Amino acid sequence: MALSNHSYSNFTDELRTRLSVVDVVSRRVALQKKGNNWWGCCPFHNEKTPSFSVNEEKGFYHCFGCGEHGDIISFTMKSNNIDFKSAITELANMAGLKMPDYKPRDPAIIAREESYTSISEKAAELFQKKLFEPGGSVALEYIRRRGFSDEMIKKYRLGYAPKNNLIANSFPNVKQENLIATGLCRRGEYGLYDFFRDKLMFPIFNARGQVVAFSGRSLDGSEPKYINTSDTEMFHKRRTIFGLNFARDEIYRANRSIVVEGQIDAIQMQSHGFGETVAPLGTALTEDHIATLCKSNRNIIFCFDGDNAGQKAAGRACKIVLPFLRDNSDIKFAFVTGGKDPDEVLKTSGPDAMRQILDSATPLVDYLWQIANTDFIVSTPGGRTQAEKFLKNELQKITDPALRSEIEKEYDARKFNSWHKWKKTTTDKKINLPQIDAISRNTLIYIINTYPELAERYGDFLSTLNIDFDAPVQLMQMDIGAAEKFIVSVKLQKYLEKLQQQKKDLTARLLSGDNVQNEIADVDAKIIAAGEKMDKLISI
Prior knowledge:
Elements: H1 9-18, H2 21-25, E1 32-34, E2 37-40, E3 52-55, E4 60-63, E5 69-70, H3 72-80, H4 84-95, H5 107-131, H6 137-145, H7 150-155, E6 159-161, H8 176-181, E7 185-188, E8 191-194, E9 199-205, E10 211-218, E11 226-228, E12 241-242, H9 244-254, E13 257-259, H10 263-271, E14 277-280, H11 287-296, E15 299-305, H12 308-321, E16 330-336, H13 342-348, H14 351-359, E17 362-363, H15 364-375, H16 381-395, H17 401-419, H18 438-450, H19 452-457, H20 459-462, H21 480-511, H22 517-539
Parallel strand pairs: 13-14, 13-15, 15-16
Antiparallel strand pairs: 1-2, 2-3, 3-4, 4-5, 6-9, 7-8, 9-10, 10-11, 12-14, 16-17
């Protein structure tokens, strides 16, 4: 039996989510961006002046010359002269998806899915009502303390799940299997019980604005802080982006999206002028999340906390976004430091402070370079080799060969200017450089050859010393802490010698009649401070 196009509806929705219409069309048509749209010569009729328009955000193309109009599927069918099934097969290969074996959809399945949506919508209404009842006072007080107005609570449909089995007891005419399938209830020894109890509830919406799942926050300090609906037929955490249903139009207007770590941050950002903000839900950022965001816009700022977890999340985002990079992409990374998150910044310092954080975000090319320089000891040949391999492997993920080549050239220049900046001091640089005693010289040579990372850290100072770091020296017993302490002590000693010389010169000028008393007093204060630092260093 021939399958109808309706049989493919779920899979075609997935294709439209994962594939950009610009990417699909540009395989056959040379496109150039003008304003919000992309333009090229229509492949369906002969023309010299481009009248073929492609809108990435809305996912369609339109020719103002011949009137052809459609999406990625119709374009693939018409441009290749193939049928519907062949077109989605080709697109599935392009998206890296496996073609499922379809059968006509069972009307019972369609009815069941509609039942799931109906249950979730009704549950959201019940939770929202409970939030404003006496039993929900703790949850309501908490969310208001976090800066949520009643308008925000209403817009995002926040609610409260009480300690009793509200949902299990509120759907007497619904099959138990359907309640369980929504993730709202589970079956226990004594019957159904609610999965969410005594939780502040955040509804999770699909792209059409329908409630399909929930995220519940604990109110008593228990862990985990958040629990989410388990994956269901209607909800998949790896594919769901919190707040996207509210942010979609703002992403189009702002020409970018902002990704934060949690739903409260996302809501507060949206409510304080950053409507293009979204967040992953209950899982690390995935390729599916990136594919969905890039379909709306390829300009993304990842804004994470500045702690280790935030840095780790940013590193993962940097690596998984590379296959989606295009020459029109603008990917950046911003960090909220000082133990704060976007919610706290907005409450304590306001939107302007948050805007400054976003404006100072680090471009992807710079951030990937930072990762290479942080994760590997690039002051050593072995470390540089590891960093080279890391960058090469990551850049291979970029599918645009021209863009990949340009970034490789950029990194080649940086490697030449930065990684090879440290040079061993040669004899022709000894003229007019400060002298150093033999014991200190030998100790420093040993330190630099044993701990090259210290050479990178103190390179500017060490390069001023009259030392041949290639000279052979005896082995010493010195750990890295003692080695760094020795370098700092030498640096302080040289600083003191410089100050003493300055005082000597100023004293000579004073005897000649110059008014330099204030300058001598300033140098004396610096000498005392440096001496105190030296005494403290020795006592450690």
